[in-house]
Structures are given as C-alpha cells and as structure tokens.
Amino acid sequence: MTMLWIQFLVSALLIVLAGTRLTRSAETIAEYTGLGALWAGVFLLPLATSLPELVTSWRAAVILAPDLSLGNVFGSNMFNVTIIAMIDLTHGPTPILNRVSQRHIFTATMGIIITCYVAIIMVIPFPIRIGRLGLDILALPFFYVFGNWLLARFERRHAVEDATIDLAERNQSLVQAVLWFLAAAVVIVFAGISLADTGDAIAIRTGLGQTLVGSFFIAVTTSLPEVVTTFTAARLGIFDMAIGNIFGANLFNLVIIFFADIFYTGGPILHAVSSGHLVTALMSVILTSIAVIGLIYRSQRSFIRLGYDSIAIIVGYVLAMTLLFLV
Predict the structure, then answer these.
(1) pTM of the entire predicted model
(2) pLDDT at residue 222 tops 60
(3) Model confidence pLDDT, tens digit, residues 80-112
(4) Which DSSP helix (H) or strand (E) runs through 221?
(5) Looking at residue 117, what is its pLDDT?
C-alpha cells in the first residue's frame, strides 16, 4: 500500500512539474502568435493545463474505471472554482471577482449549461447510440465548438484590447517553446496513466471507492497545473487571464467525457457510473453559479481577505466532498 501512495505522489509531482513547463511554453507561443491575456486564459491555457485531466480520464476509461474517469472531470471542475477563493485569500483585500471583466460570465454560463446537459444524460435510461458512438455524447464537442464560436463573436463585438502576455521566459524562442511543450506533454501522458492506475488500486485497497478517489485525490492532483498557472497570472496582476483559465479549463474538461466514452468498452460511460456523480455535477453548477453572482454583484466587502462569494465557494466545496463521502 505504501508503494502505491509513493507512485501516486511521484506521478502527481511529475504532472505539476511538466504542467508548469507546459504552461510557460504555451504562454511563450501565445506571445509569438500575438494572443492576448483573455484569449490565452480561455483557449490556449486550458488546452495545456487540462491535459492531465484528459490523459487520466482516458486511462481510467481504458482500464474500465468509469467512476475514476468521470469523478476526475467533475471533481476538477469543482476544485478549479475554489482556486478563485485561493487567489482571493492571497491577493486581497478587494474581492478578485470585483477586479475582472464581466465577460467571464459567458464562459461560466456555457459550462453550467453543458454540465446540466451531462447530468440529464446520466438520469435518462435510454442512451441513443450508433455502435459505440453515443449521439447524446456527440453533442458535447459540438457545444464546446459552438460556445467558443459565440464567444469569439462576442469578443469581436466589444472589440476589447487585452494586454500582451508576459509570463514566459523572454529568452525562449518559438521553436524551443514548441519542443518544450511537446516534451512536457509526453511526461504528462505517462504520469497521467500511472496516476489513473494507482488511483484505481488505492480505491480498491482502501475501500473509499472510485467516485471519491477520482473526485478528490485525482481531481485535485490533475488540477495542479491550473493552480500554478492561475497563481502566476494573478501574481503578475493579469487577473482576467487567471479567471479565464479557470472557466476555460472547466469548459474543456466537460469535452473529456466524450473522449472517455469513446474508449470505454463497458457501454455508455454516463450510464455505468455511480449516482454520486450527480452530486459533484450539480455542486459544480452551484459553485460556478456563485462565481457568476460574484461577477454580477461585484461586492466590495470581504472577511479575512475573502469575498463573501469566495467564502460561499469554499463552504460549497467542503459540503460537496462531505456529501460524496457519505454517499
């Protein structure tokens, strides 16, 4: 059992180190291609920082551990929203959601809609499939692409100029950035496979269950690149990129369910998982809704350097984990 935990922690460390390099390389690529802070936060960074979730959920589906796969997605989305509270605590006293653009409401709302759609599929007893391809699941990448298209139109309509990203190493060329990006991606692939395998073994040995292990241990671990990237952006005062990375990553994570369903051979993956995932799915909706309220209300008040919206997010996350453990 000790060796399993050591392997789990080593895999987690590799994901953190590779995820950090992956993020910095992505930011360098963004500099050379002329992308701004908002676009990098919503589009480019989530493609990099969500790679651990993609690999881990794919591997969990391959080894027929659907609860690990889906728990990783919803657990990561819940944890990602709590990163807002972490930033709030370290960058007070003004609540962080009062210092960013309200344009993030669009991305957050798209995530809420898609999550609710996934929850509906989970409770419908008759999946619509052609062979191994689920037509209901096929809508997920469509929603993602359509949402990004709408967001692009929304951005062009408002013609908002974002600051140029200045987070990566200045002495790194575009070719070096691409090579580092690919190398880090390879490390994350193998570390993610190891993480899923050891997570499955730990769930069996401890009796905690795949749902709890996937929604907490693996979800938190695979979200560490988001933590590193978001805190780096916040430390440099690029708060829109930090918040954009959170909501953009959550949106991309939902598409991972589509890829997991393709590689899961035990039938429709959303009908093979525990009902406990409805708790994490709906709690992720609640936590994101609290963040949306914070973006709209824009309260100036805080308590112990935390905005009231951040306090509600933390309480909601703890409550979700408690309910999941009881379930």
Answers:
(1) 0.79
(2) yes
(3) 999 998 888 887 677 888 888 888 898 899 999
(4) helix 219-222
(5) 92
* Residue-wise pLDDT tens digits, 9-44: 887 788 777 777 776 776 677 667 655 556 666 676
Q: How far is CA 54 from CA 10, 61, 70, in A?
A: 19, 11, 11
Instruction: Give the burial string for 213-240 (b: 16+ CB within 10 Å, else e).
Output: bbbbbbbbbbbbbbbbbbbbbbeeebbb
State how far the Cα of 148 lies from the Cα of 137, in Å rounded to an integer.
Answer: 18
Tell me which amino acid residue 59 is: R
Nearest to 268 by CA among 76, 106, 113, 69: 69
Q: Which helix (H) or strand (E) holds 134?
A: strand 133-134
Assign domain 2-326 to a CATH class: mainly alpha
Q: Return the residue matching tokens 């919803």.
A: 74
CA 272 – CA 317 distance, rounded (Å):
25
Query: Which residues lie below 8 Å from residue 289, measured CB to CB, with a gap of 6+?
Result: 112
Q: Give domain limits for the chain.
A: 2-326
Tokens of 180: 């580092």
CA-based Rg of the chain, rounded to a whole angstrom? Answer: 19
Where is average pLDDT lowest: 78-82, 124-128, 230-234? 124-128
Rounded CA-CA distance 187/264 in Å is: 23
SS3 for 36?
strand
Q: How far is CA 20 from CA 97, 148, 195, 223, 226, in A?
A: 24, 25, 17, 11, 9
